[in-house]
Amino acid sequence: MPIAHANGIDFYFEEAGNGPPLLLLNGEGGNTQDWASLLPALTGRFRVVTFDARGAGRSSAPPGPYTTRQLADDAVAVLDHVGAARAHVVGMWLGGMIAQELALAHPDRVDRLALVATHARPASPALWDAWTTFFVQAQERGLDRAGLVLWFMAWMFTPAFMARHEQVQEAVAGWLDDPLVAPTHGRAAQGAAASAHDTLDRLRLIAAPTLVVVGDQDILTPVAAARELAEGIPGARLQVLEGGGHLALIECAEAFTDALLTFLSSG
Hints:
Strand content: 15-25%
CATH architecture: 3-Layer(aba) Sandwich
Strand order of the largest sheet: 1-2-4-3-5-6-7-8
Number of strands: 8
């Protein structure tokens, strides 16, 4: 099992493909498997590096809370371990917040930056905390996992997606088959990092060419948050995916992949 030992803990990571390094950063509680559907389109052009952030997957889960700057330093440590001096960085959700801090604290390590379904500052930290707390408490109390996944999916996908029952059943089965559920204390620690994240007043310092992507029906990190993010970063471009929810990279897979590849391959 590939492990990078850094910052006092162990990080599970994976590499695939050839070309310029491309670092993918997971959402809250996520792991390397979250990018499986995208890898075939990416590995033909890039050397793709994925890893499980502290608190999730097969990486260590030390006590929290964590910060997005701390998680960004972890990402740089993984890049060091695989010998990537500079990389394109794509961050989804919490990963997008980590990517912002990475671009701010380590600008020499970031080539092009893609921020997906994320924000510079939560509009309501209390709401974000409540969302994470419910998820953690449901796991701690042993609530039916299929029911919990269905509740979670209503935040991730559009009503149109949820109305396609065969597709929903397939997605639920996929999540239930994932053996790498983040431990509750790790999930809570990552949630605390997301809730406290705030780069709004520093966005102007991001120098990397940036693409901001959001689904037009994202209710967790809505279009207004993506627009605020894009307007704060010099030269950033906003891509709104029609008919997409929070996981527009799945729901609008073709449009998302086209937009991402076009951006990463330009310049």
